[in-house]
């Protein structure tokens, strides 16, 4: 099913490309928040199991994907700006739920701390309450590569660290996607990395204290960069939270192999629709054999996050 696309203006400053997968039978809308350097294509496989149950909204940040042609790029965008964009989209589309991936979790926590009207539940995936040493090493290695616009080595760094457990085909997609990025996207990511390295974990914990809705934190068992143990640090600060660890999965969770896809799907749908049992074979699993990986009616997904 093809989405309805639109450009949504945010406060007269940003023009945001959105993709709205409508489900006439659904009474809930979920909005998905990308990680760094990613576009709406990142969630191609996630949409496959969410759209039969929800209206699903995807969007590109002002500097990325199909939004970047509609915006000027004279200054970097802060995580606070991304949180404001998310809040406006929640209001515009009357979203009820949020799902974030990786560093999209920073803007999501900031937004949820403002208690947006209508939001009932949120999933924070591949995010942790602190920047641990492996993540710090990865980010520090990336700073100079990003500033220099060294496309090949940025791609190799991502594929050799947070993307190390991806199948070969998706690593090739990552490399291809990174080589096509504009200079301002590297400068944006450089700004983002410096911002992350400079801030304290308490920033996210303080946000968590203000959140009243139930949260689910999902992390991969093999993810050494945003570990399940570090995600559980939120337990002392969030009023209502659950935690799920996806066995034999790294940072990219459901994209790494079929079992991880199935287990991530079960965890998300079990939380988002707690009164509804999730049939084991309700949605066919994606092909992760290194040969084929496409969603029906879409191009192969280009998947990068940091």
Automatic annotation (TrEMBL):
<dbReference type="InterPro" id="IPR000073">
    <property type="entry name" value="AB_hydrolase_1"/>
</dbReference>
<dbReference type="Pfam" id="PF00561">
    <property type="entry name" value="Abhydrolase_1"/>
</dbReference>
<dbReference type="InterPro" id="IPR050228">
    <property type="entry name" value="Carboxylesterase_BioH"/>
</dbReference>
<dbReference type="InterPro" id="IPR029058">
    <property type="entry name" value="AB_hydrolase_fold"/>
</dbReference>
<keyword id="KW-0378">Hydrolase</keyword>
<protein>
    <submittedName>
        <fullName>Alpha/beta hydrolase</fullName>
    </submittedName>
</protein>
<feature type="domain" description="AB hydrolase-1">
    <location>
        <begin position="29"/>
        <end position="257"/>
    </location>
</feature>
<dbReference type="GO" id="GO:0016787">
    <property type="term" value="F:hydrolase activity"/>
</dbReference>
């Amino acid at each position: 099913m093809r989405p309805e696309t639109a450009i949504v203006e945010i406060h007269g400053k940003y023009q945001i490309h959105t993709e709205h997968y409508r489900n006439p039978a659904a009474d809930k809308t979920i909005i998905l928040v990308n990680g760094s350097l990613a576009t709406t294509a990142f969630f191609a496989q996630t949409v496959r199991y969410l759209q039969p149950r929800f209206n699903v909204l995807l969007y590109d940040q002002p500097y990325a994907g199909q939004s970047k042609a509609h915006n000027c790029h004279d200054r970097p965008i802060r995580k606070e700006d991304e949180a404001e964009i998310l809040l406006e989209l929640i209001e515009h589309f009357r979203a009820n739920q949020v799902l974030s991936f990786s560093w999209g979790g920073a803007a999501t926590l900031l937004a949820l701390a403002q208690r947006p009207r209508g939001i009932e539940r949120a999933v924070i995936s591949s995010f942790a309450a602190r920047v641990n040493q492996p993540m710090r090493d990865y980010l520090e290695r990336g700073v100079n590569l990003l500033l220099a616009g060294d496309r090949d080595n940025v791609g190799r760094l991502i594929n050799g660290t947070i993307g190390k457990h991806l199948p070969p085909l998706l690593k090739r997609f990552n490399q291809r996607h990174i080589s096509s990025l504009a200079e301002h996207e590297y400068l944006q990511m450089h700004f983002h990395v410096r911002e992350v390295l400079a801030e304290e974990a308490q920033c996210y914990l303080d946000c968590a204290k203000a959140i009243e809705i139930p949260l689910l934190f999902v992390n991969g068992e093999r993810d050494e960069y945003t570990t399940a143990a570090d995600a559980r640090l939120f337990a002392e600060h969030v009023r209502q939270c659950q935690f799920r660890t996806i066995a034999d999965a790294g940072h990219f969770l459901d994209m790494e192999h079929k079992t991880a896809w199935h287990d991530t799907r079960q965890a998300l749908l079990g939380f988002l629709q707690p009164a509804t049992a999730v049939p084991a074979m309700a949605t066919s699993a994606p092909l992760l054999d290194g040969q084929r990986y496409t969603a029906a009616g879409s191009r192969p997904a280009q998947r990068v996050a940091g």
